[in-house]
């Protein structure tokens, strides 16, 4: 692989942000149309070097048409 084959860091940032927005919207619509309630769980932790993390998980029912 040659360096010119890789996207520039600003282009890579742009591509990641675009993908995030697309996936976020898809997930939002899917949960909005779920038949019932949505349960959320959260977990917070940190590493020894004080890096903090937050995880959020959504649990919901997703229905699909018969045969899919």
Count of discrete alpha- or pi-helical segments spanning 4 or more residues: 1
Strand order of the largest sheet: 1-2
Our Rg estimate from Cα atoms comes to 18 Å
The low-confidence runs, each spanning 5 or more residues with pLDDT under 50, are none
Helix content: 25-40%
> Beta fraction of the residues?
15-25%
Overall strand count: 2
Would you tell me the overall average pLDDT?
92
Reading the helices and strands in chain order gives: HEE
Largest sheet composition: 2 strands, antiparallel
Classification by helices and strands: alpha+beta
How would you describe this structure to a colleague?
The chain has one domain. It has one helix and two strands, in the order αββ.
